[in-house]
Amino acid sequence: MNVPSDTAVGRPLGVLAALPEELGDLLATMRAEAGVATHTLGRRDYHVGTVHGAPCVVTLARVGKVAAAATASALIHAFDVDAIVFTGVAGGVGPDVHIGDVVVGDTLLQHDMNASPLFPCFEIPLLGRAQFDADRALAAALADACERFIAEEGTMLSMRFHTAPPRVHRGLVISGDQFVASAQAVGALRAVLPDALAVEMEGAAIAQVCHEYDVPCAVVRTISDTADEHASTSFASFLNELAGAYSTGILKRFLTDYARAPRGR
Ligand code: SAH
Prior knowledge:
Blueprint: E1 13-17, H1 26-34, E2 37-41, E3 44-51, E4 54-60, H2 65-77, E5 83-92, E6 102-110, E7 131-133, H3 136-160, E8 168-175, H4 183-192, E9 196-200, H5 203-212, E10 217-225, H6 231-241, H7 243-260
The structure holds S-adenosyl-L-homocysteine.
């Protein structure tokens, strides 16, 4: 299947999350704006339309690196997206990264890739690199949207869930096919990857596919837990109560600006 984008409005932005809660009001906004055309491919629904004025293809990857890579590949090849943005939650691993903070990935790495001694630990065999960069302009625009969201809605959020006002961090996001849920596991990650701010299960797989096809990408993650023994309960309540509010607030600001000044047009 190759679904052509509407050339009159330009190539769409791929917007991706793992779980429905992480999309916030995106699909409802798309339905209200100009209608949605839904295409099913590889057991996923791809929703094509306009959100806050920006042409988008919105979909759910489901969980893990293979799911994320397959979905990113379909967005590139079947939907001809101009760029990919991932929105979701993650475990905080940086010492100053707290529940309710937001992390925008500048670089991404697969923390469970280890083909040593054949290749250095974390390096993707035959690709010659371990780290993948987010697109600088997209990451900067996302971080700007996060800052404005927190300035405008952070007090309400901190009153509902978080004692300190939320902060925006930028740096290394690490991905693997594990839900990290023990102080010991976080300690082991910190020991080998001291710069890591957040751990999740999809971002670096998307970044690898986007690198291989020269498609710009960016990842924004709200911290739902601190990847310790409380992670599963904290993750579940954050996902139900707040993940949607963060994605809604961040993407509204990001997409409104993107519609005014999309990449390459
Ligand atoms: N469908 C299940 C499992 C979700 S797995 C459920 O809803 O309960 C956790 C998801 O949140 C993944 O998509 C991952 O990217 C992110 N995540 C949040 N906290 C994480 C952590 N501590 N370790 C790894 N991934 C985490």
